[in-house]
Amino acid sequence: MALIGAEPGLTQPNWLPPADAWPELAECRAEHERLLGIVASEQSAVSALERRFADEDKNHSASLRDAFLGGDEPAQKATSPEDRAAQLAGARARATAATDALVASLENTLAEIAEKAPEWYDLLVSRRADADAKREQARRLVAEADAVAAEIGRMRFWLDRESGRSVLGHFPYAEMALPPAETAVTPDVVGVS
Question: Domain for residue 40, yes or no?
């Protein structure tokens, strides 16, 4: 339990990367999320039991007061301290066991990460190389598209002059300058190098 006390980030459902980003840890993430759910459920059961007994005490006290004011015998009985202690002990034991299971799973996952880190760093280098290759391919495609767009622009300027749409006179296509590059919206790649 000291592990999660010292590292509360380990108790967040998004501690591990999502399966689509890092499939190598998908099974660990699913187990982590499952155990977090169990811990939350067991801790909620303890809290619910504590609230129930507090409400019972409040209602019992009011019932006793009303009975004494009315001269009657109190009808409602409270759960005995022994029964309460037993129920709370059982609920707390379940919550502790669930937390212990989470900690054991976290320790296994951290050990796996430490063991496979060198292999995974190599995998990241490979994935980065693939991403860089895709980016370079995208740059080439954009450059090709820009060249096609510029040529279409030059043809349009020439056609405007030759069709009479432009007031400028006839002009040889081969000497027609390429129009300035169009402003294109490019994806934001800040932070990617």
Answer: yes
Give the distance, in angstroms, between the CA of residue 36 and the centroid of all CA atoms in the same chain: 15
Residue 47 resides in a domain: yes
Q: How many folded domains does the chain comprise? A: 1
How far, in Å, CA of 97 to CA of 42, rounded? Answer: 9
Joined together, the tokens standing for residue 193 give: 């190098």
- Residue 187, pLDDT score: 45
pLDDT digits (tens, 9 = 90+) for 147-190: 999 999 999 999 999 999 999 999 999 898 888 766 544 444 44
- Determine, yes or no, domain membership for 62: yes
**Distance (Å, rounded) from C-alpha 180 to C-alpha 96?**
70
160 is written with which tokens? 């405007």
d(CA 4, CA 44): 18
The sign of the torsion formed by the CA atoms of 103, 108, 114, 120 equals: negative
Domain containing residue 117: 2-125
Enumerate residues 6+ apart whose C-beta is below 8 A from 59. 76
For residue 44, tell me if it sits in a domain. yes
